[in-house]
Amino acid sequence: MPSQASGRRSVFDRFATHSSQWVSKDWFFTICVLAVVLWVPTLWVLPSVDTWQLVINTVTAIITFLLVALLQNTQPCADKAMQQKPNALADALWDLMGELGDEHPRTASASSRTG
Fold first, then answer.
1. Environment class of residue 71 by beta-carbon count within 10 Å: exposed (0-12), middle (13-18) or buried (19+)?
2. Is residue 104 in a domain?
3. Is 16 a domain residue?
4. What is the reported pLDDT for 54?
5. Mean pLDDT, range 2-29, rounded to an integer
6. CA-CA distance, 76 to 59, in Å (whole number)?
7. Is 100 part of any domain?
8. Residue 1 domain-assigned?
9. pLDDT tens, 85-110?
């Protein structure tokens, strides 16, 4: 999930992050399965099979649409946060190589030939 990669995050970004964490839990899947199990017996309550199918199709389509929108929002933030780690390592290695180049003449002369 996003860290402090983008600095200050909007209310929607924070909401999307918390939502994506919430729906990735195993108990959310259990709730979804329970909803389907509770939906099946409504076949005998609703007036037709078409209405019965329309109910589950509409509910799942709306939930899917909203979750995809939320998860698409969190992905770029997570990518930025993940990219900061290799960038920090590369910067640290660059600084270390610069210090080693200053201390060891052989390393300094080799780096000046390649750069």
1. middle
2. yes
3. yes
4. 92
5. 77
6. 27
7. yes
8. no
9. 787 888 888 877 877 776 655 555 55
- The CA distance from 37 to 58, in Å, is 16
Q: How far apart are CA 85 and CA 93, in angstroms?
A: 12
C-alpha gyration radius of the chain: 26
Count of domains for the chain: 1
pLDDT attached to residue 9: 77
Burial class (CB in 10 A: 0-12, 13-18, 19+), 8: exposed
Average pLDDT of the segment spanning 67-93: 77
pTM over 0.85: no
d(CA 115, CA 109): 10
Q: Which residue segment(s) compose the domain that 60 sits in?
A: 9-114
- Tokens for 98? 């610069």
Is there a contact between 97 and 111 (Cβ–Cβ < 8 Å)? yes
